[in-house]
Amino acid sequence: MIEIAVLGYGVVGSGVVEVLTTHADSIAHRAKEKINVKYILVRRDHAESSLQGEFTKSFDEIVDDPDIKIVVEAIGGLNPAYEYVRRSLEAGKSVVTSNKELVASKGAELLKIAQEKNLNFLFEASVGGGIPILRPISQCLAANDVVGICGILNGTTNFILTKMFHDNMSFEDALKLAQKLGYAEHDPSADIEGMDACRKICILASLTYGHHVYPEQVHTEGITEIRKTDVEYADSWHGVIKLIGEVKKEENGRLQIIVCPMFIPSDSQIATVDNVFNAIMVRGDATGDVLFYGKGAGKLPTASAVVADVIDCVKHLKARKYLFWDAGSPDYIDDYTKDIRAFYVCAKYKEDAEKGLALATKEFSTLEHLKRKNAPLGEFAFVTDTMQECEFRKKCIVLKKAGIEIQNTIRVGDM
Ligand code: HSE
C-alpha cells in the first residue's frame, strides 16, 4: 500500500480523489500497489463530505509523516504551492502537480531538488489537461530533433474565438458566455491576455530544448484586441484566428517563442480545433508533424493526467523517471521581431481606401488585398509577404506618416 496526500480540494483535488476512488481496483492493478489517500489538505471545512478522516488543515502533519511517499499538489498559483512542493521534495516525497504557473516559473529549481533526492517531480496535467503531451515529447518522440511546437493551449480563448467566428458574437458577449458556462474564471485575465498559454508554451519549450524558458522572456499577446472586423477579413482570406503558442529552435541554438493571435489557413488541422478543445502540433525531424488533440481543462480530464503521474511515481519509487531541464539564461531567447512571417493589416485612409491600398502596395510591393461586406469608407485590409517583423513594423511607421491609420495587425501562422 502506498500512502499519498492531496493538497487542495478544489476542482482538480476533488477530481483526483474521485478518480482514485472510483478506479481503485484498476489503478491498483496498473500500479501493482494499492494507493491510499491518507490526507487531503484543505483550507475550509467540507462538512458535507464523507472524507472527514482524511481532511487536515496542517501541511506540517503531511510533510512530517514518513508514511507519505507521494504528494499531489492541487492548490494552484505560486503561494503556498511553491513552498509546499519544495518542502515535500526536500522531505523525500515525490510530487505530482497540474500547476502550470508553478512549473513555468520554478520548474528547473524543483526538478533539480527532485534529481538530487532521487525523487520524481511529474506534471503531465500542467499542459493540455487530459491530453498526453509531456510524456510523448520526453519519451515517444525522443529520437527526433524537435523543429518546433505550436498549438492552441487555452480552451477559454478558443471558445471565445469560435463563438466570434461561427456565431457572429462580439468578444465581450463571447467572454460573458464563457463565464456563464464556467469555462472562463470570474477574473479571466490570465486566459484572455495569454498568460495561461504562455506558461504552457514555456513548459513545452523547457522540456523539449533542455533549458528553462521563463514566462517573462516570452512576448505574449492575448485576444482582447480581436474585433469582428478582423474575423470577417480572416474568413475572406479562407482562414480563422486562433490564439497560438509557438516555439522554434533556430540554427544559432536560440529559441524563437511567442504567444499571440494568428491568422491560420482553413486547411490547417489547427484551424479545425474549436470550442474548448486544445491541439498541440509537434514538428519532429523524423516524424514530421504529430498532432495531439483533446480537452485541455476540466475536472476529470485533468485528474486523469494527475492520477496517471501518481501511478508512474508508484512504479518508479526507487528509480527516477528521466524528466529534467537546466536553468535558463537571458540570451537563450531570441528577439521575436527577428522572426520571419506574413502579417494581416486592417487600416483606414481618409475616405479613400483605393488610395490607401496604393500607398500600402508601394511600401510592401506584393500584398493580398482582402475584402469584406459593408466595410466603412476608407477601410482596407491586406496580407503581406513574409518578412522579418522588425522590417514590417518599420513599413507600418512609413504608412502612418503617409496618413494611414492602422487599426489592427495580426501575425499569419505557418501551420
Ligand atoms: N483556463 C485554462 C483554459 C484551463 O481555459 O484552457 C486550465 O489550464
In words, what does this structure look like?
This protein is α/β, with parallel strands linked by helices. It has three domains: 2-130 and 300-329, NAD(P)-binding Rossmann-like Domain (Rossmann fold, 3-Layer(aba) Sandwich), CATH 3.40.50.720; 145-295, 2-Layer Sandwich (Dihydrodipicolinate Reductase, domain 2); 336-412, Alpha-Beta Plaits (2-Layer Sandwich), CATH 3.30.70. It is built from 14 helices and 18 strands. The radius of gyration is 24 Å and the shape is elongated. The model has no long low-confidence stretch (mean pLDDT 96). The structure holds L-homoserine. The site of L-homoserine (HSE) has 7 residues, from helix 7.
